[in-house]
Design a protein that fits this description.
The protein has 319 residues and is mainly α. 76% of the residues lie in helices and 0% in strands. Helix 12 packs across helix 13 (266-290) and helix 13 crosses helix 14.
Length: 319
């Protein structure tokens, strides 16, 4: 367990260093070390600390948040192919963000509107799935899929009536874009706090993954634990979507691949998901800003290009 996490930590550190060094202007390892040690006060310092570092940290935090949320959703729904967006959270966040953009709000208000939209979508899906009785994983899943379709229709309507000069920013946000992330540390703090808070619950999550009846028979308080998972997964997804927009496949592929490699122990899967998800999104964002430099691609395009064939391969192998 310690060895696996150590390897993932080293890979994450190398990915972040690679992201800082590579770009339209390449920074040598010696210059990077000079900036880290505080001996460089010129252009390289501005480039690394003011531009690349916030973007790299934002990408790592968002990737880790989505991967941990995906691992939680797969336990909650007892479906290995569930992901953080399956309950329509990204649709609610996107609707809130696009409404703020239409109103001409700044990025701070856009982020706040996205977070509020994600939380509203969470409450809406849970309320509709609960109904007059109690919700089940299948009922929650179906309600989320239908609600996501409704959010998609609302987003399409807004894009259809949006003035042409506002469309590029909206489309980039919908496809996932890290270039506007300037406050990365709250996301990293939320990710760290979530992983620390989830470690004591890992044993109960292992039991819950086998089914609610077995978990209840073994003394697990099933309903409070499911509520905790749902609220935490929603909070993590909302935080990620608020900072970098809608980025797919990270929360689906990373936990699923880690389970194939490391097993099903949530004590290992949850911190490993945070490290591997952050590493994947950092590398994807580095590729997005260098493949056609000086132009940039939305990072959501890169994750989709990587995620679609990987998903189909996993689906074929699990038939």
């Amino acid at each position: 367990m310690i060895r696996s996490l150590t390897v993932l930590f080293v890979l994450a550190l190398l990915a972040c260093v690679f992201s800082l060094a590579v770009g339209s202007v390449t920074v040598t390892p010696a210059a990077l070390w000079q900036v880290i040690t505080g001996h460089e006060e010129g252009l390289n310092r501005t480039l690394l600390l003011d531009l690349r570092l916030p973007r790299t940290v934002s990408a790592f935090a968002a990737g880790g948040l989505l991967a941990v949320a995906g691992a939680l959703m797969q336990v909650l729904l007892r479906n290995p192919l569930a992901d953080p967006y399956v309950l329509g959270l990204s649709g609610g966040a996107a609707t809130g963000a696009l409404l703020a953009m239409l109103a001409g709000a700044g990025m701070v208000l856009v982020s706040g509107a996205a977070f509020a939209g994600a939380l509203f979508a969470t409450v809406l899906v849970f309320g509709l799935a609960h109904g007059t009785g109690s919700w089940t994983p299948s009922r929650l899943l179906l309600t989320g899929v239908v609600t996501a379709a409704g959010w998609g229709a609302a987003i399409t309507l807004m894009l259809a009536v949006t003035p042409a000069h506002q469309l590029p920013g909206m489309l980039y946000w919908l496809m996932g874009d890290v270039s506007y992330a300037r406050t990365p540390w709250p996301g990293l703090l939320v990710l760290t706090a979530a992983v620390i808070a989830l470690i004591p619950l890992a044993r109960s999550l292992n039991v819950l993954a086998r089914g609610p009846m077995q978990a209840a028979a073994l003394g697990v308080s099933v309903r409070p634990l499911e509520w905790t998972i749902y609220v935490l997964a929603s909070l993590l997804t909302a935080t990620a979507v608020t900072s970098v927009g809608s980025i797919g496949f990270v929360g689906l592929i990373v936990p699923h691949m880690l389970r194939l490699i490391l097993g099903n122990d949530q004590r290992l899967i949850l911190p490993a998901s945070a490290l591997a998800g952050g590493t994947l999104l950092v590398l994807a964002d580095t590729l997005a800003r260098t493949v056609i430099a000086p132009e940039q691609l939305p990072v959501g395009v890169i994750t989709a290009l990587l995620g679609v064939p990987t998903f189909l391969l996993l689906l074929y192998r699990s038939r």
